[in-house]
Design a protein that fits this description.
511 residues; alpha+beta; Alpha-Beta Plaits; BirA Bifunctional Protein, domain 2; nine-stranded mixed β-sheet; six-stranded antiparallel β-sheet; 14 helices; 22 strands; 31% helix; elongated; binds serine; binds zinc ion
């Protein structure tokens, strides 16, 4: 890595008049020489291995400006070197009652190792980066010309750019490899009573209708009663016996939540965006209103100019819960805490992947969260796994399997692979769909480590590490799994499930 920086220190007065300047007339040039020599010999080598670090290779004083050219390796990066030199100069100039007003960056180039021929390879070909005005692919290296000012240096933008590029390299290494998937459990085979697509079958019986939006359904009384039966099973078999309390989580997610949860790193192609009007004044909206009245068309382009994005719709369900605990210290004796939410929908833009109630843009889910010390959280995840197995084998009587996969929070940040700790991760539950032979993920159980407490600054009184886990139960996915294997006829369902669901209501008839 090579850094080449040309910057100016802006001073409060002329720095020097002549070579024999006096304190009244300016700074003695030999003092500057000495200061630079000290920087090069000691200050800019501090913390770097022998022979490494940064160096001021040229300097010049003109009127109120000291111009510095700094070259470095990765050990004392040139922008850090500049801040060190600035401090040293402030000390020197102070003796002459000259203050330092600020830094101007004239030119900042960074060259880093990059694969040869990367320009031809998607993923490694870098065309655009924030705070970079020019990118050049050279043989085995990548050269960036930065567009930064002093405040960008304070915000560590150059370091973050380098980290971003390292992440891109890493992501490229994973590309093509699919997400981690490792079978850990398989239920016994079950007889299947159905070989049709359950969504199609339900549409035929008017159990549901596609809604006006993409990947969205209006659920009729029968399937709604089935969803409620699933919730009852969860409550009676799992949530109540295990001591869960119900909460209501927000379904509009402000950016601050996703900055802390990590979703801001990757959610953009899949989220539903939420906007507010730039003004509440009806006059501001008059042209839109008039346009609609005369055309009967909603002028979406006009609207786009008058709104601003403030976040998105619920995507993972648990992140907004953490605002409840944000910045708090918890007494150890309230642990483990177990809560769940079933207060609304989740949204994912599935693009071309939509398929019936199996893959939707709008879906319903019960989300469980448990919080405790590390072992407590791991143990509770095991307990949940046992309970879920009981439900699937004894009540729903379905055929399913469980797999250890890339943790959901990593996948949602756009990462693949596994978490560093073996205890942290996600188990996906999948059911076979006889009509297609494919397996459908219908829920998960995850140990999320300290990620969420740390992202939302939640601490324990004792100082012990706080961990958490979550489990998302997709109601449409449970329905698709069960109905795909057993069909819509209650006779084919287990007796237990039939009695929990009760008589299915017949409300609508269409002519
Ligand atoms: N929050 C987890 C997920 O989004 C579980 O629902 O997958
Ligand atoms: Zn979750």
């Amino acid at each position: 890595m090579k850094f080449e920086l040309k910057a100016h220190l802006r001073c409060s007065g002329a720095v020097v008049r002549t070579r024999t300047g006096t304190p009244e007339g300016g700074v003695n040039l030999s003092d500057i020489d000495e200061c630079v020599a000290y920087c090069n010999k000691e200050l800019l080598k501090k913390g770097a291995p022998p022979g490494c670090g940064a160096e001021v290779v040229r300097w010049k004083v003109v009127d109120e400006r000291i111009t510095l050219e700094i070259v470095s390796d990765r050990f004392v990066r040139a922008h850090d070197a500049l801040l060190r030199v600035k401090k040293e100069f402030a000390r020197l100039l102070g003796r002459y009652r000259i203050g330092l007003r600020g830094i101007e960056i004239e030119d900042y180039k960074i060259a880093l190792e990059w694969e040869e021929g990367a320009e031809e390879k998607e993923g490694l070909r870098i065309r655009k980066l924030p705070f970079v005005k020019e990118i050049r692919h050279r043989k085995g290296s990548l050269e960036l010309v930065l567009d930064v000012d002093e405040s960008s240096l304070d915000k560590k933008i150059p370091d973050r750019l380098i980290r971003l590029l390292e992440e891109k390299k890493e992501a490229n290494r994973w590309k093509g490899k699919s997400e981690h998937w490792e079978l850990i459990f398989e239920s016994e085979k079950k007889e299947h009573y159905f070989d049709k697509d359950p969504t199609e079958a339900m549409i035929q019986r008017d159990w549901l209708q596609h809604a006006a939006g993409r990947g969205q359904y209006v659920y009729g009384p029968q399937i709604t009663q089935i969803f409620r039966a699933f919730e009852k099973i969860l409550l009676d078999e799992l949530l109540i016996p295990l001591g869960y309390n119900e909460m209501v989580f927000p379904k509009f997610i402000a950016w601050d939540v996703w900055k802390r949860s990590g979703h801001a790193k990757g959610i953009y192609p899949e989220m539903y965006y939420v906007c507010t009007p730039k003004s509440r004044d009806p006059e501001y909206w008059e042209d839109v209103i008039d346009y609609f009245k005369v055309t009967n068309e909603v002028p979406v382009d006009m609207i786009m100019e008058k709104i601003e994005n403030v976040g998105g719709m619920c995507y993972a369900q648990c992140p907004p819960f953490w605002v409840f605990l944000q910045g708090k210290i918890l007494p150890d004796d309230i642990l483990p805490v177990k809560v769940f939410d079933r207060s609304g929908t989740s949204y994912r833009y599935e693009s071309g992947g939509l398929h019936g109630i199996e893959r939707l843009d709008e879906f319903h889910r019960v989300e469980l969260i448990w919080i405790g010390k590390k072992q407590e959280v791991i143990d509770h995840a095991k307990l949940l796994q046992e309970r879920y197995r009981q439900i699937f084998s004894e009540i729903l009587e379905i055929e399913w399997r469980e797999a250890w996969v890339t943790p959901w929070f990593m996948a949602q940040e756009g990462r693949t692979g596994l978490a560093e700790s073996k205890e942290v991760g996600t188990i996906d539950y999948e059911a076979v769909l006889p009509y297609s032979g494919k397996w459908l993920e219908f829920q998960n159980v995850s140990v999320n480590g300290y990620k969420y407490p740390s992202g939302f600054s939640v601490k324990l009184q004792s100082g012990a590490e706080l961990w958490s886990g979550c489990s998302g139960v997709g109601l449409e996915r449970w329905a698709a799994s069960l109905l795909a294997q057993k069909g819509l006829d209650p006779d084919k369902w287990s007796e237990k499930f039939r009695s929990i669901v009760g008589e299915l209501p017949e409300v609508f008839r269409f002519l």
